[in-house]
Design brief:
alpha/beta; 8-stranded mixed beta barrel; two-stranded antiparallel ribbon; 12 helices; about 25% strand; elongated; binds ligand C2E; binds calcium ion
Length: about 375
């Protein structure tokens, strides 16, 4: 006996009874996925559906309807998180994972309310002049219990749960206000780069409107704001993302393609993207001075960027020898531990003041001479 129901939205529930073994369910699940993924014509266009299936068994997983539904829902969620187009059987461990997620989500939300996030800044240095051209704002979480926590430990979860949206709003405002604070102090204007997650550019959230009103509110010159986005994010919904960033470019905001080389951009793609800068990912730089093929690869990326009129920033530069190679290959800017680790706003301010003082002293000397 089989019962198929639509419980709401795009979720369907299938109740099977008299199931003999898991293989039988697996075969059925696979055939559902296969038939859904077969393309069909819709208003003259070929479209295909994908689905994620979660499976719970009775009496093994639960013996009452509510628990069985909840378990299959949780399994479905897992299947979805595995990238979709698949099925998962419910497992007890999912419960723990779900509880941990919820806990971290709550913690991140609370961290935001309690002002526990902080921006660190890492300079980008112009290869030719040796001047700092800008800084990248990098998020840190000062957890009262655990100390300073790096973004790799919480951003993926923040993205999954969506908390990255309010966190990202905070990051943008904070970075812009900091940049204005430096300017008000008479420190040389620096471009500040902010990382943007794919969740933030959801068309329902009016990302462009947010950026524009923050610029107005803080008074920051749009030319001094850079947004960094990965190609995956930019291409995930290109029909809305590309015009969105085109609009921001028109306002004067810079756009860098982050982690370049780790995704799948083809040349023809790059030409269509409203970007002005490529940031070559750290993974290419590690062996640049020992691996001729890595060096050749970076060299050709830089050559290609030239043709497209893009600036090239290389991140993750740690050694003199890597730096020398990159200068030879013709990159524009370098960011990496060779110049500085990401440092707190206070430390950045100190360094900027120091540089300003040195320059003023230098000017006085030349005036005297
Ligand atoms: P990313 O955008 O690729 O940022 C560069 C990362 O490389 C930073 O790690 C930086 O500290 C590190 N790095 C820079 N130079 C060197 C070097 O010479 N050697 C090595 N080993 N590492 C270097 P961080 O700060 O831990 O950030 C990690 C990632 O977290 C970032 O990668 C970015 O994807 C994400 N992230 C950071 N802040 C934010 C944020 O405000 N919003 C969003 N959505 N993501 C953020
Ligand atoms: Ca970045
Ligand atoms: Ca990177």
């Amino acid at each position: 006996e089989t019962l198929l129901a639509r419980l709401g939205g795009d979720e369907f529930t299938l109740l099977l009874s008299g199931v003999e073994d898991r293989e039988q369910i697996e075969r059925l699940a696979q055939s559902i996925l296969d038939s859904l993924s077969a393309p069909f014509a819709l208003r003259g266009q070929d479209v295909a559906l994908s689905a994620s299936l979660g499976i719970a068994l009775s009496p093994q997983d639960a013996s009452d309807v509510e628990t069985l539904l909840r378990d299959s829902d949780m399994a479905m969620f897992h299947a979805k998180n595995q990238g979709g187009r698949g099925y998962e059987f419910y497992a007890d461990s999912m419960e723990e994972i779900a509880a941990k997620r919820l806990e971290l989500e709550n913690k991140l939300q609370r961290a935001l309310e309690r002002n526990e996030f902080e921006l660190y800044y890492q300079p980008k240095v112009d290869v030719l002049s040796g001047c700092v051209t800008g800084v990248e704002a990098l998020l840190r979480w000062r957890d009262p219990e655990r100390g300073v926590i790096g973004p790799d430990e919480f951003i993926p979860m923040a993205e999954e749960t969506g908390v990255i949206v309010p966190i990202g709003d905070w990051v943008m405002r904070e970075a812009m206000e900091q940049s204005m604070a430096w300017q008000k102090e008479g420190l040389p204007p620096l471009r500040v780069a902010v990382n943007v997650s794919v969740r933030q550019i959801d068309p329902r959230l009016d990302f462009v409107g947010k950026v524009v009103s923050l610029l107005e509110e803080t008074g920051l010159d749009p030319q001094l704001l850079d947004l960094e986005i990965t190609e995956g994010a930019l291409l995930s919904d290109e029909e809305t993302a590309i015009p969105m960033f085109q609009q921001l470019r028109n306002v004067g905001v810079g756009l860098s393609l982050d982690d370049f080389g780790t995704g799948y951009s083809s040349l023809s793609y790059l030409r269509r993207l409203p970007i002005d800068t490529l940031k070559i990912d750290r993974s290419f730089i590690q062996c640049i001075d020992t691996s001729p093929s890595d060096a050749a690869l970076v060299g050709s990326i830089i050559a290609m960027a030239r043709v497209l009129g893009l600036r090239v920033v290389v991140e993750g530069v740690e050694t003199r020898s890597q730096q020398a190679f990159l200068v030879e290959l013709g990159c524009d800017e370098i960011q990496g531990f060779i110049f500085s680790q990401p440092i707190s706003a206070e430390q950045t301010t100190e360094i900027l003041r120091h540089k300003k003082a040195l320059r003023e002293a230098g000017q006085q000397n030349t005036v005297k001479a």
